[in-house]
Design a protein that fits this description.
Low-confidence stretches of chain B: none
Structural class of chain A: mainly beta
Strand content of chain A: over 45%
Largest interface: A-B, 25 and 26 residues
Oligomer: heterodimer
Structural class of chain B: mainly beta
Helix content of chain A: under 10%
Largest sheet of chain A: 7 strands, mixed
Radius of gyration of chain B: 14 Å
Order of helices and strands of chain A: EEEEEEEEEEE
Shape of chain A: globular
Number of helices of chain A: 0
Radius of gyration of chain A: 13 Å
Strand content of chain B: over 45%
Order of helices and strands of chain B: EEEEEEEEEEE
Number of helices of chain B: 0
Low-confidence stretches of chain A: none
Mean pLDDT of chain A: 94
Mean pLDDT of chain B: 93
Distance between the termini of chain B: 41 Å
């Protein structure tokens, strides 16, 4: 158990809908990262927050947004969902915000868009 | 941006044999190289990492080597066991703020008893 929690574990929804994924980092970690894992794209970095502020942005679609709250938990919002958004979404956390800080991954949320 | 290539995509070994997974990276400024193990239905788990000021690092049956000149790094697992069966990912990053991990495509390792 990495100490990173994610809810929900599974999510099934329809095209065009909006969902929110939630992540709580390990105690003491200030940075949260979101990743998308699909069969054809592998593990893709989406976005990073450090102590409430956006720190780095990867291949995140405009339909997706995220935020980190004062208690350091983070939410990833996915809107206007398409079939291709079906994937595993992972959250990771680290103590600092540097690229060489160890990242600890949560168990993931499996999103299925029908 | 950084590009990380990982080979092989699948690897099957007999229990007790060694397994080697190789990765190459494109950005010579990258200086942090972690390896993750992902078991079915779980998130990736950090198993070992190496920084560019070190050529080799070992932790029990796992070792990682780094060749900065050639821009490649490798994971070595000795005396493999069935519980080593999983998907392994390499990654690369720079140590600055705002730099993210770029992952390789993954290697599915199967250890046959």
């Amino acid at each position: 158990d990495s100490g990173v929690t994610q809810t929900p574990k599974h999510l099934i929804t329809a095209t065009g809908q909006r969902v929110t994924l939630r992540c709580s980092p390990r105690s003491g970690d200030l940075s949260v990262y979101w990743y998308q894992q699909s069969l054809d794209q592998g593990l893709q970095f989406l976005i990073q927050y450090y102590n409430g502020e956006e720190r780095a942005k990867g291949n995140i679609l405009e339909r997706f947004s995220a935020q980190q709250f004062p208690d350091l938990h983070s939410e990833l919002n996915l809107s206007s969902l398409e079939l291709g958004d079906s994937a595993l979404y992972f959250c990771a956390s680290s103590v600092g915000g540097r690229g060489d800080n160890e990242q600890f991954f949560g168990p993931g949320t499996r999103l299925t868009v029908l | 941006g950084e590009n990380v290539e990982q080979h092989p995509s699948t690897l099957s070994v007999q229990e007790g044999d060694s397994a080697v997974i190789k990765c190459t990276y494109s950005d010579s400024a990258s200086n942090y190289f972690p390896w993750y193990k992902q078991e079915l239905g779980k998130g990736p788990q950090l198993i070992i990492d190496i920084r560019s000021n070190v050529g080799e690092k070992k932790d029990q049956r796992i070792a990682v080597t780094l060749n900065k000149t050639a821009k490649h790094f490798s994971l070595h697992i000795t005396e493999t066991q069935p519980e080593d069966s999983a998907v392994y990912f390499c990654a690369a990053s720079k140590n600055n703020a705002g730099n993210m991990l770029t992952f390789g495509g993954g290697t599915r390792l199967m250890v046959k008893p």
